[in-house]
Amino acid sequence: MARPSRAVISRAPTLDDVARAAGLSSMTVSRALNTPDQVRPETVKRVLAAVKATGYIPNALAGGLASRRSKLVAVLVPHINDPLFADTLQAMGETLSQRGYQMLLCSAGYTPQTETELVSTLMSRRPDGIVLTGIHHANDLKKIIFNASVPVVETWDITPTPIDMLVGFSHEKAGQATAEYLLGKGYRRPGLVWTTERTAAQRKNGLYEGLARHGITDVPCVESQLPARFADGRAGAAQLLETTESDVIICGSDTLAQGAISELQARGLRVPQDVAVMGFGDLDFAAANVPSITTIALDRRAIGARAATLLANRIEGRSDGEQIIDIGFHLTERESA
Amino acid sequence: MARPSRAVISRAPTLDDVARAAGLSSMTVSRALNTPDQVRPETVKRVLAAVKATGYIPNALAGGLASRRSKLVAVLVPHINDPLFADTLQAMGETLSQRGYQMLLCSAGYTPQTETELVSTLMSRRPDGIVLTGIHHANDLKKIIFNASVPVVETWDITPTPIDMLVGFSHEKAGQATAEYLLGKGYRRPGLVWTTERTAAQRKNGLYEGLARHGITDVPCVESQLPARFADGRAGAAQLLETTESDVIICGSDTLAQGAISELQARGLRVPQDVAVMGFGDLDFAAANVPSITTIALDRRAIGARAATLLANRIEGRSDGEQIIDIGFHLTERESA
DNA sequence: TTGTAAGCGTTATCAA
DNA sequence: TTGATAACGCTTACAA
User: Fold this and answer.
1) Are B108 and B76 in contact, with CB atoms under 8 Å apart?
2) N or C: at which end does chain B have fewer Cβ atoms within 10 angstroms?
3) CA-to-CA distance for B325 and A323, rounded, in angstroms?
4) Which residues touch strand C (CB under 7 A)?
5) pLDDT band of A149, cuts 50, 70, 90
6) Whole-number percent of chain B with pLDDT over 70
7) What DSSP designation does B303 have?
């Protein structure tokens, strides 16, 4: 049964609807919207008016299918609610958005296993690029990415042999720098409150190496869950105090450090006079804490922004310059150690 | 010119490639992958083998275009790096992932203006659902959503007239509860360290109302930027102490409260004996802080999980039960006030 | 249970 | 500068 002629069209307006409204072909409308330079200014105006009149919103599914460019970037982080990654994500989202890309975000947990499954699912969206956290990935994952030949940026770590591009820094060097700084300050009995995460483990390696070089071994270490919380820092420090006589507590993150400081203060110990505390990450509270937290500062936003830029440039065919970016770190001396 | 038969196919394998490899039609392969119950078990096996052999990864762009279901949920939050939202996002991502949806995440800033633009862009992905933060949205935005007739969940606030579905709680009631609690505790000279965000403003309204009922007006308030940081809490408390004689500092978030407490302690003031401090959000450090922070506890993860469930159910046509969920809040008495 | 045909709403390509 | 036509890779609807 035919509908009455003034029937309301229930489906969303398409390019064809706009074309009809403007008295043009759909191809011209498409050009007016995507490459206005190739269309007469008057025509563009007509199209824009028709777009407004019809309430047209492009269908990126169809567009992506036809053009083989989805304008989508898949981002994998261990945890969205880990404050270390939060600023990176925020900056990445901003930069991607400016460049016309949207962010498909997944939390992958901290195991290569789940990461591979997720990437596989994400690939079905045909993203124009992928952002990975860390440099340790399952071989399956690399194979998938290689077969799809999609640009990748690995972040938050560094290696001379990334899958593709990279923005990060050396966790081992950060660990070593920490060891040297603290030894230079005269601390000799360090204790660790650490997390089980992979990059954290590398920092620990660097740290142990640096300490061992000065004959300090058998360093006690309390491990806590992820993401690291204030309470874990307190508990970790408490546990350390019960079993050892540390003169400095080195923490896997500023959050842990803040908790550790709190625990020490609660026990009437002065920081750093009685026990010093070292953090990692330079989170927003580190500078304002009492005492302020000596830590490894990172430009976390830069990781996100530069990763996004690297990806966007590559996608758009102008990948000039270095594809491995070491954003470095800066040991920031404050009051706590 | 015909290619040699053993030519390497450079493009990604399609359903047709799998079908050819399995000696079946592409439709049967599609069924074997999406609705295996409708296909003979043997056939499914053959398909799965062919999928593995070819390295096939479905094209969700094509699938979404044909089926009109994108399996995508667009999520808008003011800031990704605001710790209040982080747990909500994490839980939402987990639930969506379990239900087979992926999360398109955008930070919208805190203005309805940018939000509308973003939603417009996001709609081009034809998401199956949308998650919004807050209940105050531009009319344009509502129109876009209404025209597209896409399910929406508003979060982190409550109203009897949501656009569609809602998971949140009453900020005004939270403010009132805070006022009543503190008045009951005997505090009479409150000072505020607050943020400029919309829901925070509503809590302030509720708070002022509750205070006014007991004759307390002219409450001093220091406003700080978003997202609220520890340092802002310190600065806010400092400013308050200079100008007034508060017996309790009420903070717009636990982060601010933690900073405020730190500032008071740095000045040799005891919390709560000299000045009390009240927080909001029950962030992970609130219970472990010294002193522990009296705050408004929310099930932030529940907001994310329930919003995701609501959306998934609606999309899948089984939207039973309430569509407006008040997750409530709980004033948690601790040491700081 | 499996297959055929016709879209889904764009863009690439070539022609006018 | 504009238009016609054929993909893009999948699913819906219907047929066998």
Assistant:
1) yes
2) N
3) 48
4) A 11-12, 14-16, 26-27, 30, 33-34, 56, 58-59, 62-63, 65-67, 69; B 24-28, 31-32, 38-40, 42-43, 62, 65-66, 68
5) very high
6) 97
7) H
